[in-house]
């Protein structure tokens, strides 16, 4: 038997014996499943399903039917990958974890029925509520946070408010339906309501303040009765029920009774996937949205609307720069160029299109030749936009080339993020390393290099950077499995990652190039000045449905 055969046979035995951990993440454009074995650093199999949000009555949403059809499709794709690689079918796992986009609003009545369509993090209709709660709590409450959505519904006197009996996030909802447990990982919970670091629970003072504020409204239950119970990484979070197993695997091969770890948000899984859970570490996650997370040594001195404070999956405070708009507009332009290639009779795959365009961007001027690209498909609170209008803007003396256009689009992905990170720099927050993950980094040495220039810091790619949050969730499930089996994981999540996941891992690190730094700074100055053009476009060009 060859070494490869031995490795495959060992993996097959681990799968059949349930010595595995499954991570599922519902991202903005893809639902991904990732399976790891006894060594969480090694991916055994993956599955995925593409989906997209809808703008319905002016609000971004995903139908819950799409949640379940997408989950089943991603899981079936993973099972098919297991069969192709190992010629076995999984019937159990050592642990399962569910992650999803943070924040948003899923409100249910006493019978567990959804009261209004799921309102995602992308919505920006909560301005009045966010402002009032920021003033009340003395901390920044962003538009996308669940508590802002709830209070906006109260302010708007929406008819469903008196019937609310449970409020959760997308990850919390899926976990509830699979296990029957109304719980949430502390990282995801910190995007619902601020967390008290001393109690590892919702801030009790703020809960009482909210109840007093909403006392004259039609909200019938106190806030603590509406929110899911908070758990930290490694704590038991229930087991897969028979009903849950049927939801995930209608084929019936999957059995009940599997341990679950606390459900987490995509920010938490990004931190895990990049080993950025200890103070003075940070990470950038780039997808439909883009956000930076920096684990803090001390509280921030001032309130900044560009920054909000969440936590790691272990409960440590994190400064977050969250931008609603990431790589969607860049992907749209790539599709245009892909179609152009096909129209000329030279059709190429999506990966080849991105590779060619990204490589071309390296040939562009350091400042993108005076071309500016705004990636604002949706509203962008960091720069004060309630709605988005994707734009390419240039002056007559700019140098419009394919290289400059693509460099401008790549710079544009990081533009709003860089503005937020400048605020964090003003607080004197120190960083030892910034790690990145997401599909935009699959073309080596391009987006990573430009991000280093934008952040004025070295940017490292984790070995699993392109696998993203689904792998991070699988690692959290593996951590819970190890804790449940009593294998000495009491040292904490950071030690588990250092010793069991990233020991010996090599990181591809890009230092800021001085020419890129100067060029991006010039681009960012023009980008900031041109935000008035973006605001004018929002005023002058109504979106569909407005």
TrEMBL record:
GO molecular function: kinase activity
Signal sequence annotation: none
InterPro entries associated with the record: ATPase_NBD (IPR043129), FGGY_C (IPR018485), FGGY_Carb_Kinase (IPR050406), FGGY_N (IPR018484)
Superkingdom of this protein's organism: Bacteria
Domain Carbohydrate kinase FGGY C-terminal positions: 283-480
Gene3D superfamilies given in the database record: 3.30.420.40
Keywords: Carbohydrate metabolism, Kinase, Transferase, Xylose metabolism
Domain Carbohydrate kinase FGGY N-terminal per the UniProt entry, residue ranges: 22-247
GO biological process: D-xylose metabolic process
Protein family per UniProt: Belongs to the FGGY kinase family.
Protein name stated in the entry: Sugar (Pentulose or hexulose) kinase
Lineage: Bacteria, Bacillati, Actinomycetota, Actinomycetes, Micrococcales
